[in-house]
TrEMBL record:
A Pfam family reported for this protein in Swiss-Prot or TrEMBL: Glyco_hydro_47
Entry protein name: alpha-1,2-Mannosidase
Keyword Disulfide bond (UniProt): no
Biological source species: Mohoua ochrocephala
Main enzyme class: hydrolase
Protein purpose: Involved in the endoplasmic reticulum-associated degradation (ERAD) pathway that targets misfolded glycoproteins for degradation in an N-glycan-dependent manner. May initiate ERAD by promoting the first mannose trimming step of ERAD substrates, from Man9GlcNAc2 to Man8GlcNAc2. Seems to recognize and bind to exposed hydrophobic regions in target proteins.
Protein's gene: Edem2
Domain of life: Eukaryota
UniProt-annotated catalytic positions: E82, D223, E316, E337
EC number per UniProt: 3.2.1.-
Cofactor field: Ca(2+)
Annotated region (Disordered), positions in chain: 481-521
Subcellular location(s) per record: Endoplasmic reticulum
Length: 540
């Protein structure tokens, strides 16, 4: 564990010294480069790792730096997928952990706060990408101008199905359903377009919903779609998402699994197209452990571990029948997936083999990729040549999962015996009780936080009943309560949510039906008066 901590600081300090405010460190030349959009990405990605390592003072300093220095109003073409998992995910996680890190939080936290506002601003920049006939997003968006006119409509499956964790969290915390709605629509569009044998391909046209790359597997281009069906189901307690995954899981076992390896097959016929293991597939045993399929997970994990031992890392592609690397795919960019699976499986089994993988990973990375200015991507595992890049996921994921593998008492592993009670405008709420859901960039989301910022419908009805009673006593004549015009709508425009709560109110209050119902913006009652200043009656 202490060696992992030292690895983190060797990389992190050199990033600050040589590369900040660029996105990433170039460790061979000791300078920086922008890669995913010019957000000081490594800093956002490493923020929650600082807290997991126990460094609250640096966490607090970085929160201030990000608030002052990061601007999303820039003329940059950004990957919708990468911006979501790294920037939105990193900011949401840091926002939810900020009280634990000793940051002085706003009165309405976790339902408000500067990092939450930044996450929302970044996510809003991505929304234009979802405006397609299918609801599946474009892969790239310009942060200032939206989708470029000539943008390709072809997006990979993972780039469509990897939003529900971050976007549902945003919707629950901010009260704006648009984020969760677009994420769900995209997930369901993929589900609707699966093949007759239950598989999805690799790339699809988001305008026509035609599959462009028809290879089906669990690796690159598809991976985090399956991951987010499971994690979305756990985070939101959503049976529909889980049943979608379990259907896919059957098809994956039927068509792609051979001797505890997973191959690539043609999505319509199920015939093998590539007998290849990709390093990105190594997340799969960890995902299997989340649904309780630990025996199968361990068997597949041990296959992958033999590849690691052969090369001291996982090559991007590994030809299973030949037992060797694939031409031009011999590199290892310090990816976390095998270590991630080891961390999950160790929590499930306590099998010491998993700690051995962790130790091997520390030894390999230190021996092969450590340089004076950080840790460099391994360009070729056969001769250990290096590349001048240190991806931000090295500090966000690889180091974090290694540290958590060796730190059984970390707060992330909390079993619920310890928790904080926070008072929000919506009542008391329990936080930091464990059960964290990691997004696909290893940013932990506290699922309990999703229940902090919503009034229960019954409370809403209670308040509306009280208001009706108050008015019926005050005046016998009929009146209505008007809502301030909202974004150019007419003054009587209503939210769908208001309409449904009104119907419920009518059912429960048939005696008072002579009085028209309130139609206020959907926010906590005490802010309704604060926003509107006063309640207006008819003819006043």
């Amino acid at each position: 564990r202490e060696r992992v901590r030292a690895m983190f600081y060797h990389a992190y300090e050199h990033y600050l010294e040589s590369a900040f405010p660029y996105d990433e460190l170039r460790p061979l030349t000791c300078d920086g480069q922008d890669t995913w959009g010019s957000f000081s990405l490594t800093l956002i990605d490493a923020l929650d790792t600082l807290l997991i390592l126990g460094n609250v003072s640096e966490f607090q300093r970085v929160v201030n730096v990000l608030q002052e220095g990061v601007d999303f109003d820039i003329d940059v073409n950004a990957s919708v997928f990468e911006t979501n998992i790294r920037v939105v995910g990193g900011l949401l996680s840091a926002h939810l952990l900020s009280r634990k890190a000793g940051v002085e939080v706003e009165a309405g936290w976790p339902c408000s706060g500067p990092l939450l506002r930044m996450a929302e601003e970044a996510a809003r920049k991505l929304l234009p990408a979802f405006q397609t006939p299918t609801g599946m997003p474009y892969g790239t968006v310009n942060l200032l101008h939206g989708v470029n006119p000539g943008e390709t409509p072809v997006t990979c499956t993972a780039g469509i199905g990897t939003f529900i964790v971050e976007f549902a969290t945003l919707s629950h915390l901010t009260g704006d359903p648009v984020f969760e709605d677009v994420a769900r629509k995209a997930l369901k569009a993929l589900w609707k377009n699966r093949s007759d044998i239950g598989l999805v391909g690799n790339h699809i046209d988001v305008i026509t919903a035609k599959w462009v790359a028809q290879d089906a597997g669990i690796g690159a281009g598809v991976d985090s779609y399956f991951e987010y069906l499971v994690k979305g189901a756990i985070l939101l307690q959503d049976k529909e998402l889980m049943s979608m995954f379990l259907e896919y899981n059957k098809a994956i076992k039927n068509y792609t699994k051979f001797d505890d390896w997973y191959l690539w097959v043609q999505m319509y016929k199920g015939t093998v197209s590539m007998p290849v293991f990709q390093s990105l597939e190594a997340y799969w045993p960890g995902l299997q452990s989340l649904i309780g399929d630990v025996d199968n997970a361990m068997r597949t994990f041990l296959n992958y571990y033999t590849v690691w031992k052969q090369f001291g890392g996982l090559p991007e592609f590994y030809n299973i029948p030949q037992g060797y690397t694939v031409d031009k795919r011999e590199g290892y960019p310090l990816r976390p997936e095998l270590i991630e699976s080891a961390m999950y499986l160790y929590r499930a089994t306590r099998d010491p083999t998993l700690l051995e993988l962790g130790r091997d990973a520390v030894e390999s990375i230190e021996k092969i990729s450590k340089v004076d200015c950080g840790f460099a991507t391994i360009k070729d595992l056969r001769d250990h040549r290096l590349d001048n890049r240190m991806e931000s996921f090295f500090l966000a994921e690889t180091v974090k999962y290694l540290y958590l593998l060796f730190d059984p008492d970390n707060f992330i592993h909390n079993d619920g015996s310890d928790f904080d009670v926070v008072v929000t405008p919506y009542g008391e709420c329990v936080l930091n009780a464990g059960g964290y859901i990691f997004n696909t960039e290893a940013h932990p989301i506290d699922p309990a936080a999703l229940h902090c910022c919503r009034k229960r419908k019954e409370e809403q009805w209670e308040v509306e009943d009280l208001m009706r009673e108050f008015y019926s006593r005050k005046k016998t004549k009929k009146f209505t309560v008007k809502r301030a015009p909202d974004h150019g709508e007419g003054e009587n425009a209503k939210d769908p949510e208001d309409a449904s709560s009104e119907k419920a109110g009518e059912r429960r209050n048939s005696k008072k039906s002579s009085h028209s119902l309130l139609s206020c913006p959907s926010q906590s009652f005490n802010s309704k008066l604060a926003v509107l200043g006063q309640v207006f009656l008819d003819n006043t």
